[in-house]
Give the backbone structure.
Amino acid sequence: MWRPSGLFHVNYSQEIAFVQTPFQWVMLVLGLFVTFALPLFIPLDALNFFIKAFITITAVLGLTLLTGNCGQISLGHTAFMAVGAFVGAPLLNQGVPLILCLIMAGLAGGIVGLIFGLPALRIKGFYLAFATLAAFYVIRFILIHYFGGVVGHNVPPPSILGFSFNSDFRIYYLIASTCFAMTYFTKNITRCKWGRAFIAIRDHDIAANTLGVNVYFYKLMAFFIGCFYAGVAGLVLSIYMGWASVDHYSLTNCIWYLGMIIVGGMHSISGAYLGVFFILGIEEMGIVIAPKLAELFPQLAGSMIGAVPIIFVGLVLVLFIMIEPRGLVHRWEIIKTSIRIFPFSN
Amino acid sequence: MVEEPILEIRSLHLSFGGIKCLSDISFDVFDKGLLAIIGPNGAGKTAMLNCISGFYRPQQGKILFKGKDLTRLPSHQIAKLGIGRTFQNLAVYAGASTIDNLLAGRHFHTKENIFAQAFWFGPAMKEEMKQRLFVEEIIDFLEIEPSRYSIVGSLPYGIRKRIELGRALAMEPDLLLLDEPMAGMNLEEKEDIARFILDIHELRKIPIILIEHDMGMVMDIAQRIVVLDLGKKIAEGDPDQIKSNPTVIKAYLGE
């Protein structure tokens, strides 16, 4: 954060404000302007990249709260996205207003998440990861067998006040604004009592208990809120795809989401943004490079196209865990500090 | 006039399987009292505190706090009744800043609802400000202003101990349980903590139960002392009585 000398907080509200300096105001307005003007300048391919990124960010923000802030690992995040999509899509088909559908999708994801979060009351860490992995398959099974999951649901282009989101160009605006709204909620949750209770549970659940935090309640609420994000992201993804099918919500994606919060930085919003753009960027790079590698090694060409992006992402994850386990955000903090105290080093 | 005790321990029994951890312990903590629990290692001092804050469920006996039995209440409700505590091993939230640690201590004093919070309108902001003001007073009291914004995990041990104490104070407790607040400190740091404990006790009028191994310190600041050995209470009295009590000397030095 660039802060000219002599600019100090004079009260507490300034200190926890979303935007703290005039420079940040400029950046915020500029950032929003660029985001919303982007589709006018870039080709459709690039636009699809951004759409995918914003959907992923919405989902990953939920994971940031659940795993990064509250310390509850979830390997079932995409399943909760699927729940959101499978509840939201039929509602959209029946002509329920879009905003209401998004909220219902979020609530459905949240409630299912809360139910499958129940094991978290008893188990932690590695074991919880496996319980949520089981949740992934249970939900997938239920969706496939009882809610028409393999075929899925058609999702009509929704509209708000007559503005129909019927092309990628238009859907981009829906997705970007959903993502920003969710980001704003995340920021607010993390700076209030709830966010602090989550951190308390992550860092020392026994101490949290003696300080009056009802650990069971807040763990479940972390699941509810985290999966609310997943539900919303799931519905938004199905709107983009025009179709809700369990195949869009794979386990691989879920593991990559965890990878994204590791690469970005577990418990911050900017971490979610950085991680998502970084991993998706690496993946895109893999997709571009793969055909060229295939030309170089013709005997491997068949398997290379699909494998190269995954290998790239895997490699990046391993490198990050070894070199910068606290993520890009941490590295960015270090850079910021060294710029601030420039002639000296820290 | 007889003073009403704020905390009454009545014939407490605690055992894990065949191991008797506490047997037939009874004592009272009076309002405005500073009670120290001492005893050799493994005497059951921390187990005693864990019973009070609801981690262990004693098999028999009662713990009455303001006339209410604590033995079947969950920990977080015991905290709400007004019992704050610190831990022998540091239990700060290492990943959060000092401010957030202390604000987390204000948890059940913070009246917020999640919807107002998520949209961050009117009352949400005001409530945060109110809690922050309270926390700021504690920071001032414990003299940790320089580390206000630091991540607690990066602070030195002595400061972390203070932050833990501050977090317990932020609860506005009616009874404070301190489990070895001076463990692993040098003389100067110990004196600081002793000063804070006395200030808490005298200015804020909070009764304290203190577990400590530094006898000199205990004898200086405690008003009453309970001595435990192998799960039994072997003596109770003011520091002078304890110093000259032959059973206590035997427990510490052997025959």
